Amino acid sequence: MALIKCNECGQMVSDKASNCPKCGAPIDHPIKCEECGETVPSLSVNCPKCGAPIKKTPMNNQPCASSSVLKLNWEGKYAMVKTSIEVIVNGQSLGEYSYNDGFEIEIPIQSTIMDITLRCNNMKFHVKLSLAPQENYICKLYYSSISFFYYELYNSAGRLIKKDKLGIGMYILCFLIPLVGFIYYFVKKNEYPGKAKAALLPSFIGLCISILQMIFL
Q1: Which of 4, 89, 127, 139 is the most exposed place for a label (fewest CB within 10 A)?
Q2: Span 131-155, mean pLDDT?
Q3: Are 40 and 48 in contact (CB under 8 A)?
Q4: Alpha-carbon Rg for the chain in angstroms
Q5: pLDDT value at residue 132
Q6: Distance from C-alpha of 6 to C-alpha of 90, rounded to nearest angstrom
Q7: How many other β-carbons are positioned within 10 Å of the β-carbon of residue 115?
């Protein structure tokens, strides 16, 4: 048995453990690229050294805990310049993918909580998904000037489970009563980060208009 470091808290744990006994974070079991022998994180799609596709088999040649996958789908969006989105899952970077052309990544579900972060230029979108380990999912990513990044989560039957997009009614309410938007942001920012951030924009606009009215009227 060997000891490896937890990516979250730094605690040394057994390489056979599925979660850190100190902080509960899922433990990444590195695997070897069959082409060049490079050791890479278990969630890697391609080897960063030679580019070969990575087979999802841990180093001890034992099968993965779950054969279920989360498909992360981004259809691409027009931009004046070519840019990329870095995808980070449970603290492990899966690499950078095209913002313009889109991508689809199959991520093995290794824990009931999938912590996903997207980094694009100066923007950062973070979400935690609660998933069943024996179910397959599709997470469709979107972006709009009003809602910023948001997502729709579907199960294997194609049923919409969760949608992180602010509705037009709530958008108008946040504009008319800015305090509602600010409260909504702090209450929902962990569960629905897309909705929470989208609520701030009409709230700030509504607040600024109210202040200007107080000054000039």
Answers
A1: 4
A2: 85
A3: yes
A4: 21
A5: 83
A6: 11
A7: 17
Reading the block at residue 143, the tokens are 């972006």
Instruction: Give the model confidence (pLDDT) of 201-212 as tens digits.
Output: 899 999 999 899
Nearest residue to 77 via CA among 147, 158, 180:
147
Residue carrying the six token digits 């087979």 = 55
- Write the CA distances from 45 to 31, 40, 123, integer angstroms: 11, 10, 23
* Longest CA–CA separation in the chain, Å: 74
Strands 39-40 and 137-144: unpaired
- End-to-end, the C-alpha distance of the chain in Å comes to 74
Residue reference for tokens 């942001």: 185
Ordered DSSP codes for the chain: --EEE-TTT--EEETT-SB-TTT-PBPP--EE-TTT--EE-TT-SB-TTT-PBPP---TT-PPPS---EEEEEE-----SS--EEEEEETTEEEEEEETTT-EEEEEE--SSEEEEEEEETTEEEEEEEE--TT--EEEEEEEETTTEEEEEEEETT--EEEE----HHHHHHHHHSHHHHHHHHHHHTTT-HHHHHHHHHHHHHHHHHHHHHHHH-
Q: What is the pLDDT of residue 25?
A: 66
In whole angstroms, what is the distance from residue 117 CA to residue 126 CA? 4
Could you tell me what percent of the chain has a pLDDT over 90?
20
Tokens 């990516």 correspond to 7
Read off the tokens for 176. Answer: 């008319």
User: How many alpha carbons lie under 13 Å from residue 15 in its C-beta half-sphere?
Assistant: 13
